[in-house]
Structures are given as structure tokens and as C-alpha cells.
Amino acid sequence: MTPVTDIASTEWGPPDSLRLRRDRAERILNALRAGVLCLLTAAALAYAPSLSTELNRTNVLILVPALLWTVAQYILWYRRPMLPDWLSVANATLDVTAVSAIIGAYAVVESGVLALRSPIFLMYFVVLAARPLASSVRRAGFVATLTVIEYLTVVVWLFATQRITPTMNPMEAILRSRVSPLDEAAKVLFLAIGGVIATYAASWVEHLVIEASTESAARQKVATRLVQAELDTLKLQLSPHFLFNALNSAMALIGSDREAAEKMVSELSDFLRLVLSGSMEHEVPLDRELELLERYLRIQRVRFQDKLNVDFDISDEARRAMVPSLLLQPLLENAIRHGIGPRATPGRVWVSAHRAGDMLTMQVVDDGVGASARRSRERSRGTGLGLANTATRLIHLYGDEHQFETGPREDGGFAVRVVIPFRLRVGSPAVDGGPVVAE
Predict the structure, then answer these.
(1) pLDDT in tens, 88-142
(2) Comparing C-alpha atoms, which of 49, 395, 368, 111 is closest to residue 234?
């Protein structure tokens, strides 16, 4: 089974975890934007009686479209799992442009000095501070550059149109309501430094998340390899376990029926060849597993002859389902060795497999000596490895998506029930819309 990670290759784009964090940050920032705009709108309404008509008109022309755009985002995209990728740079661009528009409009309807000294200038830094959370390095750099260019353009325009009176002395600029080019140059420099810091912070956050995602993927691969190694170990335990039991049976026949012993060894050779041919696969079609059971039963019938009867009830769609390799053989061996073997009279084993919705149900039932005699026999011989390994393999392969039940039957004997997800090999046509899964 191939492990699937949630980490996209950093060669082609950021990992999914980083995209999810940026999407969450953009949602939070949009909520903050809505709150700030509501506060600005409330302040504009409160100060409206004392402001000029032109200034009130400016507030309406800037605040109303910004509010409508913010609300429209909730209506259009917030029910989606992910916001549009371009939204983060679009919002930042609109925020920067809105601040520049407010400064420019205040300069037109009131005075350039008021516009440049307005606290709204600080909103540039708020926009830049949010970039590492919601933008890539390239987009953070774009927004930082745009911020410097827009403010520098506004300042140059105000000087060029003589909407402000320049003076080189900063103190004189304060006392006489003028603007010092040195002060504005310092503000542009601070914006540039803020933009560099925001871009670097975006780069740092991106590399931090990618590094964490890479380490997480590496740990997941190591964990997967450990589970794979344990599964391989369990499979390797099953084959010698069966081989040991089969050779013991052959040795028991050598003294009493040499021909039967030779036949058992020959059948054992064919069986092992079939097992080894699929030793690298953890899941095989049930049809192939049943073929393995037929070979195994030939070996056991040499020993038990008419004492052993096995009935199969396998639906056609179940035959195509993927099951763990060597799943049913240890269950059938357990039924024969500990259920039918101790009986003085012939016994019967029933093997069934049927699809139930999205699950595959398999059962191995015998009318043998029952659970109490079976447990006593297993303790005395130190057996029971087959059931224990099967339970462990199912946990590793399917986690909580399986059932493994063992216990006595009401009318005698023992029953094993296995329920696993119904899956088909890739390339096989689905049965009644059933699932298809890779090996």
C-alpha cells in the first residue's frame, strides 16, 4: 500500500499546510479589515458635522466601496474550502491604494500638510505587517514595492503641484505648517525598511513551514517503513510457521504411509512456489488467495483424507476484492489443526466471503472440538501464532476500518470473522459503483 502525504512538492509550489495557513490568515485579516472599516465609518459619521462637504464626500467615496468589497468576499468565497489564490495580493493592493487615495484626497480638499501628517500614513505599516502571514515572498515584495512607489508618487505630486510649501528645516516645517523634504525622505526610507522586513519575514515563515513539512514527511516515511518492515516480518513468520507444521505432518506419515508422505512433500513444494511468487505483495485478489487455499488443502487431505471436509461459499464480486496475502491460510490451518485434527470423527470447515456495502466479510468456521479444548491444546503446544499475527497485520493495514472476531459457536466448533474495506485492484472495473484502490 502506498502512503499518501499531504505535502506538495516545494519545487512546484508551497506545501498544502502553508497554503491552508495563508488562507486562514487572509480570512482573519479580512475580518480585521471589516472591523477597521466599520470603526473608520463610525468616526467619519461622528465627525461629519464638523467636516467640509468635500471631505465628507471623500470619506464616502473611499470607505463605502472598501466596505462593499469586504462584505462581497464573505458572500462570494467564504463558503468555499479555499479562497481564490489572487485574493491576498488583491486585498493588499486595494488597502495600499486606499491609504494613498485618502492622503491624496485630503491634500486636494483640505491641505497637503494635513494629508501628509495624517495618522492614516501608519496604515501602510499595518498592511506590510500582515504580509508574512498571508502572502508568499514574491507577493510580499510586490506589496512592499507598491507601498513605497505609491507614497513617493503622492509626495512628489504634492511638491510638483505646489500643494505644500517645502522647507529644509524640520523645526520650521513644524512651526510654520510646512513640509520638510528630509522628513518625507525619512518616511519613504522607513517604508522601504518596513517592506524589506516584511518580505524577509514572509521568506522566513515560508522556509520555516516548508522545513517543518519536510521533517514531518520524513518522519511519516520512516514510520511507514517501520510498519512495512513489521508487516514483512509477520509474513515471514507465517510461512515458516506453516512449513514447520507441514513438515511435522510429513514426518508423522513417513513411518506409516511413505507414499502419502512423498505426495505431501510434492504438494508442499507446489504450495511454497505459489507463496513465494507473491511474497512481495501485501494485498492480492481474493481469487489468488483461494487458489493458495486449494493447494494447501491438497496437502492436508493427504494426511486427513476423508476426515476433512471443506466447503466454500464465495460470491463472484468478492473474488475480485483485494485482501492481505496469506490472510485465509493461517485461519484455515488453525481450524484444521486445532478444530478438526483432535476429533475422532470427520469434521467440516466452511469458508465464506461476501460483499456487504463498502466492506468485505470473510468467515472461517469449523465444527471441531471447540474453544476450551483449542485453548488448552494451543497452550500445551505453544501454538496460536497464526491468529495473533493475522490480528496484528489487520491493525497495521486497516487501523479502525476492520473487524477481527474469534470465538466459539453456539452449536460447537470455532468461528473466525474478518471484515475489511472492499477494494479492487487499480484498472479493474468497479462493481456496482464500488471503490477502486491502488495496491
Answers:
(1) 899 999 999 999 998 998 888 888 888 888 888 999 999 999 888 888 899 999 9
(2) 395
Q: Which residues contact 118 (CB under 8 A, 6 or more apart)?
A: 102, 103, 106
Q: Tell me: do 32 and 99 sit in the same domain.
A: yes
Interior CA angle at 44 toward 39 and 50, to 5°? 145
- Nine cell digits for residue 141: 515584495
pLDDT at 380: 45
The total number of structural domains that make up the chain: 2
Q: Say which DSSP state 429 is in.
A: P
Least confident segment among 217-231, 235-249, 316-330: 235-249
Q: CA–CA separation, 166 vs 181, rounded Å?
A: 7
Instruction: Give the number of residues written for the chain.
Output: 439
259-297 per-position pLDDT tens digit: 777 777 887 777 777 766 655 577 889 998 898 888 888
Q: What is the residue whose three cell numbers read 516480518?
A: 233
Residue 354, φ and ψ in degrees, nearest 5? -145, 150
Q: E strand or H helix at 314, and its extent?
A: strand 308-314
Cα(163)–Cα(382) distance, integer angstroms: 98
Cβ-contact 326, 275 below 8 angstroms: yes
Residue 168 lies in a domain: yes
- For 178, phi and psi rounded to 5 degrees? -120, 180
Domain hosting 150: range is 16-219
Higher pLDDT, 276 or 411: 411
Q: Which three cell numbers stand for residue 135?
A: 502572502
Per DSSP bridges, beta strands 322-324 and 414-421 are unpaired
Residues 136 and 259 grouped into a single domain:
no
Cell match 453456539: residue? 410
Residues 36 and 120 in one domain: yes
